[in-house]
Structures are given as structure tokens and as C-alpha cells.
């Protein structure tokens, strides 16, 4: 693949040009392209909830079913820096990076080196009236364990160190495999793991937690930053860049030495479920389902479902559990601060009020947004989506899908307060003079964050489009699916 250095304006023009070529089937492409019209949208073009159905059979190559609305489209050839979006909901179907293997490998190796540096040197040093304490970054997890909070310690350890390290090793393994003439063992299993780990890596959220902690204690004690602090920032940024550089469409195309043909009789311009098909969420390939609406991807082995099984029931159950846990998370102290022998409990709201009353408005706003607005907003938004999914009211499906994307994106940022407690607990250990220990609300609040994240993952956004899809399917004499993906 050749590097393509163009401006964003040029990119749009190039994309439109390629789109036109592809419609006519003239342009030779590095990956197989369909013969007939690719029903994908270029970025910044209007989204249509009622794209014209196209029921002509296409070449059965490079077809995709949108993960968010289930619409079947054909991918156009992509140039580096371009991404193909769904014409109906705007969801990203595929993106192309220049030198995808080399770029991802270089970033993953750099992030791994930065991680090793981050856990090998002192992180932050704190001292008050001659009594000091210096911590390494991993002590934020081990100190929580020592304070009898093993579940919170495990969450911090997994989200900040273990899962990112696994992800980086997996990315390096898969990219090296792509560079070799023969694939390394377990490459497909490891590549499948990458997408499942990504939502649970929170090194970037930990950076925000560190900043908030530093501002909180800046006026109370002397703080100096160690080498590990800067290494950790580099690690978090490089990890983020690695996840963004991973071109999964290219990865699976290269791992499999091409793309298997899509099932016989497949049509673009209709939902996959209406044709008893489903798109793989890992590699994108469309596969045939059995009579119960289930199947498995022939390329990566991932399970396929017309709709996620019992999506609404799982989402409701997890949401209700999170709502119940949110009560103790606010009623009980999230941490205790000991100063000159007296111990004060701090609730989440109490902490926000304390910071605001002492003039730390920016930090107070960050904590208020992350710990109050985001969890409540996310629970309400998800509950509303679960309510409207089976009823399909007048609100546009694309608006509901955007709301779903937002709830998925913001959920993990609520972990800021949990990381603040972990960092302060590890750092401020000056005995009766000044120390911090976690309260019972830390566990409850961490569980709220994890449960709402899982609830959002269990929710199937394709349900938000099913009424629109059914109307289209009725018009084209295809099977009609209800909101659970079953034929009535
Ligand atoms: Zn879509
Ligand atoms: Zn697959």
C-alpha cells in the first residue's frame, strides 16, 4: 500500500473520486472490490434513514453489515487516511491507515518500553513537615489490596497495567505474524482478543485521575514528579495511538490471505437479519445464520447472532443493579482523610463541595462531571434506549444511535474518582500527620462504572432500527424480524 499525503480537503475529493470509480467498477484496488454500487457514505455527507434499497445482487466480495443498524453495504476501495461510514447511521465500517502493520508494530513496541519504564522508576514523591513518601505507580493497586479493597485493587491492576500489557503483546505478536512469510501460531485467536480488551484499558483515565490527585494535594504538601510519571504519560498516549492505528479490516484480510466470499444470494440495501445473515463484530465478514438466528464466523470463529441474545433483559438487569449500588456509592464515604490525628469521611458529593468551597473549581467540575453527571446520565440514557428500542417512538433512529455511541464512549471516564482514591491512598501515608484510606463507597462506585459499561455492551443498537428495517423488509417481501431478532 502506498503512502498518501493529502490534506483533508484533498482526501474528501480523492474519496469522492474513488467512490465514483468504484461505482463504475473501473479502478484496480489493493483489495477486492464489489462490481456493483458500494452503499457506503463518505464522511461529512448527510445521513439518510431511508437510503434507497438496492436489491441487485452484487459480487459476493467485501460486503459489510453495519454493526449499529445492520444495513448491508459494499465497501469501496479505501486509501490511507480514509474511512468508510454507514450510509444510514454513520457508523464506521472500516478505516485504512498507511503502513498499517509497521505503524502499529512501532507504536506497540514503543508503548511497551514506556510501560516498562513507568513501572520501574519512582512515580510521585510527597512530603509534609519533613515526613515523606515516594511511590511507584503499581503501588496504587497494591496499597488498595493492603487496605482490604481487593476488588478495587484488581480493577486498577487490570485496567491500567495487565490488560494494556496483554493488548500490546497481542498487537506485537499479530503484526510480526503479518510480516513473516508464515503466520505465527494462535495469530487468529490473539487477533480476536484485541477487540475484546480495548474497552477495558484505562491508562488515559488514570492520567486524568493523577492530575486531579496532584491538584487536590498541591496546597497541602510538597509534591515532586518522578521519571515514571513522564514515562506513564508517554505510555498512555502511545497505547491510545496503538489502538487507533490498528486497521482491523486490513489485519483480518492479511491474516486470512484474502476474504472468503459472502454467502450466496446476499443483497445490499437491506438488513442482514432480513436475509438470515449477520456481520461479524470482530472481522466484519458476513455469515449465514441457522434457523435460530445464530452462527459462527468462518474467518475468525467469532459467534454470530441476528441480534444479541436477550440484549434488553441483560441491559435492564445490569442497569438496575448499577442504580441500586449508586445509592451506597453516594451515601458512604469514598475515602477517609486523616489530618493531625482526626479522621474525616469524604463522600463523593462532599468532596466536590469541599473542592468548590476552597476555590478548586476546575477539579470540582471534573469530579462532579465524572462521578455524578456521567453515571446518572449514562444510566438514564441507557434506560431510555432500552425503553424505546421495543416501542420505536417517533425520534429518529440515527439520533438514538448517536446517544448510544455517547453512552459507550463516556462510561469509562467515571473511573477517575476510583483512580484518585487509589493514588491518594498509596501516596499520602504520613501516619497520624496526614493519610488517606479508601471507604466502602469506592467499591460500590467502581462496580457502578463496570456494570454500566457491561450494560452498554449488552445493549444491541441494531434494535433501534428494527421498525425502520421491518418497514423496508415488508416492501421487499423479505422475512420480518421482531426486536429480539426472531421471525414472528
Ligand atoms: Zn449503520
Ligand atoms: Zn469474523
From TrEMBL:
Keyword tags: Cell inner membrane, Cell membrane, Membrane, Transmembrane, Transmembrane helix
Record membrane topology: Multi-pass membrane protein
Keyword Cell membrane in annotation: yes
Compartments where found: Cell inner membrane
CC terms in the record's Gene Ontology section: plasma membrane
Entry superkingdom: Bacteria
Chief place where the protein resides: membrane
InterPro entries according to UniProt: PqiA-like, PqiA-like_proteobact, PqiA-PqiB_transport
TM segment ranges: 104-124, 151-180, 201-221, 227-246, 314-335, 363-388, 409-428, 440-459
Family: Belongs to the PqiA family.
Protein name, entry field: Paraquat-inducible protein A
Species this chain originates from: Halomonas binhaiensis
